[in-house]
Every structure is written in structure tokens, then in C-alpha cells.
Amino acid sequence: MSYQGKYQRTSAENYEELLKALNVNYLLRKAATVSSPVLEVTGEGEEWSFKTSTAIKSMELKFKLGEEFDETTPDGREVRALVTKDGDKFISVQTAKKEGEKSTKTVREFKGDEVIQTIEIVGGDLVCTQVFKRV
Questions:
Q1: Taking every annotated instance into account, which residue ranges of this chain make up the domain Lipocalin/cytosolic fatty-acid binding (predicted)?
Q2: CATH fold of 5-134, please?
């Protein structure tokens, strides 16, 4: 299956609740929830890039499968990240470096012309689901 391409977000469930749980301020939450991001996937083999772009901001996650790296999340947390692959799922675990900050797990599952992205706070029960459709 070819994962490469551009995908437009078509739905988001519990997104604002997740941002609130991550202590994202009100204005940034509102901007994020009304935006219509495009996810661009490039790469192959072990090296990948997931770039998410909105009219306001672009964020790029560049990684090598199975290799830990340092990352600053879009909401400003300093984390140690690891991305693995299981079938058609890319699983990203971001472990917070600072005491009191939250760690997250993001699963991007490729199904046909869709990417189903679920984000959860490690140790919590809130799950945010976003669906992206290939454009």
C-alpha cells in the first residue's frame, strides 16, 4: 500500500477536549478546531515525514522507524518520541520530559484512501479521532 500523498481532514471528534486536557490556551484551541488541515505523507522504508499544514501553521514530524528522537510538540511539550509501524498503522509515543506534563500516543491507520488518526493521553481515557481523506 502506498501511504504517500495528501489527505484533507474530514472530521474530528473530541479534538477540543484533547487540546484542553493538554492545557492548550483558548485562542489556539479555537484556531485549531476551525482549521481544515492537510496531512502530507512522504517517505519510504524506514524514513518518513508527516507534515500537517493549516492556513496558520505547518508542523512536520520527520522520523526513522524504531529510532527515538527529541521533539517539541505543537502544544509546546518537550518529549522523547518513538514511531513504530504495525501493519498499516504508524504508532507514535511521545513521552513528556518535564514532571507534570502529559505523554501522548498517536496512531495513524491507513485504510484505502483514508487516514484514521487517534490521539490519547497516556494513562487517561480521552480519545480524539480525526479522519483524513486522500485528495
A1: 4-119
A2: Lipocalin (2.40.128)
Domain boundaries, the chain: 5-134
Residue 98 CA, chain-centre distance (Å), reads: 20
Dist. CA 17–CA 13, nearest whole Å: 9
Q: 108: which 3 cell numbers? A: 495513524
Q: Residue 71, Cα to own-chain centre: how many angstroms?
A: 12
For each of the chain's 135 residues, which pLDDT tens digit applies? 799 999 999 999 999 999 999 999 999 898 888 889 999 999 999 999 999 998 778 899 999 999 999 999 888 899 999 999 999 999 999 999 999 999 999 999 999 999 999 999 999 999 999 999 999
Q: What residues are paired with 69 via a beta bridge?
A: 81
Report whether 10 contacts 131 (CB < 8 A).
Answer: yes
Please check whether residue 79 is in contact with residue 96, taking contact to mean a CB–CB distance below 8 angstroms.
yes
Q: Which whole-number Å values give the CA distances from 50 to 30, 42, 44, 67, 116, in the listed order?
A: 23, 7, 12, 16, 14
- Residue 62 — φ and ψ, nearest 5°? -105, 130
